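G., the chain you wanted modeled:
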Amino acid sequence: MPRQVVFIMTDTTRKDMLGCYGDSRMQTPNLDRLADQGLRYEQAYCCQPVCGPARSALFTGTFPHSNGVFSNNLPLGDNVKTLGQRLSDNGIQAAFTGKWHLDGGDYFGLGRCPDGWDSAVWYDMHNYLEELSVEERLRSRKSETAYDETWGSEMTYAHRVSDKAIGYLAEHEGEDFFLAVSYDEPHGPFICPPPFNTMYDGFSFEDNPTFHDTLDAKPMLQRLWSGDDLTKSPEALHAPSKMLSLYLGCNSFVDHQIGRVLNEVYRLAPDALVIFTSDHGDMLGSHRLQAKNAAFYKEITNIPFIVKPGRGHEGNQQVVVHHPASHIDVTPTVLDYFGIPLPKLLEGTSMLRQFENPEVRINEQVYCEFTRYEVDHDGFGGLQMMRSVTDGRHKLTINLMDSDELYDLASDPHEVVNLIHDAQYAALRNRLHDLLLEHMDQSRDVFRGYQWVARPWRGDRSASWQNSGKTRQRENEEYESRQWDYDTGLPMESAVRGKKLYDVKK
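Predicted structure as tokens:
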């Protein structure tokens, strides 16, 4: 039996934008069907709620702070290897069609296939725009084009990405491969043909406590981010709008395009492991916020994650996984599936055991971060430093230059009540804080330091100039020679060791 993986992702799909996550008004029959054949994760998180950084974690198995893409439009480090490179170097065909956003170019990319991926299938948004005339390019960036009768499905990026994927499946039937299908939709400008362009006219999300959050006990960055929404009524925050209608219509349209690909998967690669997710979500007025930024709210970080294991799923009944999961685990999972030893520098773990037995807990906690949104924009708050952790029940967020947050998801699933100064939660808060600080050290977070320790609510732990006092060298020995010890000039004996200071004898 061939070993095949089809990885499908969208851009800016919230978990509650799929019918299988509970809202029957969402018309996503193809992804709902996929969920019925396997696992649907309730507590899956991206590693940073921004396009490029989120993708960097997915396709390298390292956090944005490790691979260099801690903001949009920054490239991966020269010695950072992608999943495609690791697979192809081990004899597994790797193909990628769709949005990449990891080459340091602008939103559309540079149009060049990275090492390790099949250049015949490569099709980023730069390639798409090259196919269009100047006039068509202008139309492709306007939401009004969704109502243009001359702009059919075949003119959309989603349709052409699907065509590439379908062609690849037909050409490589019966072979080992990894195929990534990465849609820009439903990200704006939300272009979708009939009937999708009017399918959600008049739609509004149901009222919930997030629309009533005054942000009084929240970080200043959130109040600044909210802008005029800070003074709007809850009714106005979730009122129907043409933008929301097109957004959700485009979401159903991309589900339709995914369905075209899945139908070929079911026909040509029925035993393939299929994974679906999104890079991040959108606030859409929750907590008086729009789009995404430095926050750990579920609307932007708790993304959809659906898995059809590489075997038939008996009973046609989806299994819901409530354990915490993370995008950081995708690369090690795929490598493990193909029998490739996991490199030491990967910062996640394989999920295969959980796919086979959903009762298995892979992660005791998962982590999320934020460092910058757009390197080429002056706005969006500029520099924001955030590190977060959740154990599935509680969420702690450290906003380095602002106030911090703690939420109890059992008593407050909408994350309205900030418990950071609540004495009853002090022990739990401090435990999560310690785990977060340890994670920053272990993952060689380039932005780590005593400032993350010295929080006004943490009186039992002192900050130190030396932090943990360790030095932590990189271990990428599948591709690099063993790094040399600064103090000896010889190959290091241990990657993690006590940091020596100059010792000059008098």
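The mean pLDDT is 96.

Shout if anything looks off.
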